Amino acid sequence: MREKTVIAPHLLEWYDRHARVLPWRMPPGTGTGDPYRVWLSEVMLQQTTVAAVKAYFTRFTTLWPRVEDLAAAEDAAVMAEWAGLGYYARARNLLACARKVSESGGFPDTREGLGVLPGIGPYTSAAIAAIAFDRPETVVDGNVERVVSRLFAVETPMPGAKPILRDLADTLTPDTRPGDFAQAMMDLGATICTPRNPACGICPLVHDCKARALGIAADLPRKAPKKAKPLRQGVAWVGFTNGAVLTERRAEKGLLGGTLAFPSTGWDGSALPAPADADWREIGTVRHIFTHFALDLTVMTAPLRGAPRRGDLLALDHFNPKALPGLMRKVWDLAAPDGLARAGASARNRR
DNA sequence: CAAACGTGGCG
DNA sequence: TCGCCAAGTTT
User: Does residue A191 approach strand C to less than 7 Å at its CB?
Assistant: First the structure.
């Protein structure tokens, strides 16, 4: 039987004084929040920084204050609002989840019930159950893994240590205020028990921390070395008519799935032809770093004459570059000045 | 179960 | 400049 380390009361005391004020968060000790806002924030926060999420959360909750409002939204509208936040499968799952929840009259109030919904995995189901429904679930994210690996000086490298850390975290979860406890662990990891240069001097758990005692806090959790990212190449075409630009909705599955884009070759060596016969001119190259590869995308522009073979002509009046994912934003920023000028020129030349 | 899946900030 | 990292999920 493992000796049980009781840190919850002490950590909650710290949280009561130092909790970050966040748009989706109830102040410490004030009970559970709106499940819709908890869910929306948790999905947005998956692998995404608090700073990046804030504006998106405010925008989404303004446009769609209730889950029923989001459920009724157009796919393209949600994708456009999500643009720039990354991991676009989240946006597609978000809508699918909103529609299921809306149909069934509200969010399930257990980890098990939440866990079967699209886009809600082990972390998010436990987080919503604890934060929105006061269930004593153990919430394990990257922060908690780091904090626990240090508290117990777990030297097993990640990701192999995950089940070990989860079991250890389980021994810490209190029956009272589990939602605040989960958020306290995450706040501690985000502000004090940070990946590099942890601020052990002001840590409320410094006397409970085995890694600190051993002088190895900053070295945990141990991680296997990462693989190098390959560099891939491709071509993107930005075609213009006098008042429109040639765009394309990417396939639902895969990279940038469901997002607005400019026609391009595949980025794995597959050579798709240009979407239209035109006087394509190379403008330059944009580099973009994805999670598992880097991409150099050569950008071509041209005024379009006949009908394109693929893609959709989108009137410039209805085209918002902010609705593009980051890569395509870079393509647009590079192509727009020259392309618009040439399209304008060609329109004049035709006269 | 390893790999796919975005993006921006920081040291 | 560049690698690391962030409130993970899906296949």
Answer: no
